[in-house]
Design brief:
By secondary structure, the chain is an alpha+beta fold. Helix content is 29%, strand content 25%.
Length: 389
């Protein structure tokens, strides 16, 4: 695993605008960074990242199976009690999933360590599945990279095939509604990309903002044209939806959700101590505990994470009794977990995080983020990668 400096493509910003990558720069700071790329060997990809990613995913599903019927654990996961039966039914029915992303600490040597599972609303999808592949093709075409160079990236192909499979479970003519919140350019770009993938799979799609979804008197959800919503991809976390004013209607609205309701468990940071409890000393896991177990855990170097944290919000790093770094955010009232501190590798003054994607449980691609901070957050830079032995 190496970080290689390279020349940026001419007029890539104009190309980004033409292809709808409008969030390549955010708040005046670069988000997409092609002044360098990360280079991996095929063995690193296959043995250190791809295989563990799929194994970790299966372990996470075993956690769901254990938690789903245990009242004590459902409370530990902060799942509202009035939704327990509905979420349990989602799991027992085998409601189908589309995708997820595992965040890993990996330096090119030794086993990658799971930091968290972004199993419900992972972003950086467009950058991973399309834009960095376009970068690779351009770099090969201009001679900057050899023709035999590759990239761990079947994400777009797998998304399209998965949408085809999901469509097969629905009546002919079903419309897939796609949604995100307003005023989030990155989220809008992500769902536009997914909408393109769904259409490529032959699915009729309609977009509606979360804030514009209405309800009938019977509790069914509708779009702005009063069309009933029966199948929806929503880039909106379950922990929010389960607490909205309309949450009581979720169980009777008749919607097939992507991601399904049981993802409220596997996208939850309480997953981390449960994984460690069920698979102690697994080479791809870090010791993790609920906050009230910290005193007896033996951890002196740890990361404290809110159960519902996203984009690195409200995370703090503690080293031998000192809080060495902390991020702001709106989370924490739901409680915390602690996880042994595994420093991210440092390249040229930046700390590098690996995102390993899955589609229907199969490893599908790689994203690389880096930040000057020890905590990776929403504005951390995205860099492309290659496979070259």
């Amino acid at each position: 695993m190496q970080r290689k400096v390279t020349r940026e493509r001419d007029s890539w910003q104009q190309q980004a605008q033409e292809f709808g990558f409008h969030f390549h720069t955010m708040y005046g700071e670069p988000y997409w960074d092609e002044s360098a790329y990360y280079q991996f060997t095929l063995e690193q990809i296959e043995k250190d990242l791809e295989e563990p990613t799929e194994e970790l995913h299966q372990m996470c599903l075993q956690v769901v199976d254990r938690v789903i019927g245990d009242e004590v654990l459902m409370r530990r996961f902060q799942i509202p009690e009035n939704h327990w039966d509905w979420i349990q039914q989602s799991w027992k029915r085998g409601d189908k999933t589309l995708y997820s992303r595992l965040d890993l600490a990996y330096n090119g040597h030794g086993p990658a360590k799971l930091l968290e599972n972004n199993a419900d609303t992972p972003t950086s999808l467009y950058e991973t599945g399309f834009w960095q592949w376009l970068w690779l093709e351009d770099k090969i075409a201009d001679g900057s990279l050899p023709s035999h160079v590759d990239q761990f990236n079947s994400l777009q192909e797998k998304l399209i095939e998965r949408f085809k499979a999901l469509a097969g479970a629905h009546a002919l003519g079903d419309v897939l509604h796609i949604s995100c919140c307003k005023d989030t350019e990155e989220d809008r770009g992500t769902v536009q990309y997914l909408e393109d993938c769904a259409r490529e799979a032959g699915i009729d799609t309609r977009f509606v903002y979360i804030e514009d979804i209405g309800q009938t008197e019977s509790g069914q959800f509708t779009d702005l044209d009063d069309q009933l919503i029966g199948w929806m991809f929503k880039l909106y976390p379950w922990e929010f939806m389960l607490r909205e004013n309309y949450s009581d209607a979720l169980s009777r609205a008749g919607v097939d959700w992507i991601e399904p309701a049981w993802k409220a468990i596997v996208s939850n940071k309480a997953l981390l101590p449960m994984l460690w409890q069920m698979f102690p000393n697994h080479p791809n896991l870090l010791p993790a505990f609920f906050e009230d177990e910290l005193q007896g855990s033996g951890l002196t170097r740890y990361v404290k994470k809110p159960i519902f944290a996203r984009e690195g919000a409200n995370v703090s790093i503690h080293i031998d009794g000192r809080e060495v770094e902390v991020s702001d955010g709106p989370y924490g009232e739901e409680g915390y977990v602690v996880q042994a501190y595994s420093p991210l590798p440092e390249f040229e003054g930046s700390h590098t995080l690996i995102g390993s994607w899955l589609v229907d449980g199969e490893a599908a691609g790689l994203s690389v983020r880096e930040d000057r901070s020890l905590i990776t957050q929403d504005l951390s830079r995205f860099l492309p990668h290659v496979i070259l032995d």
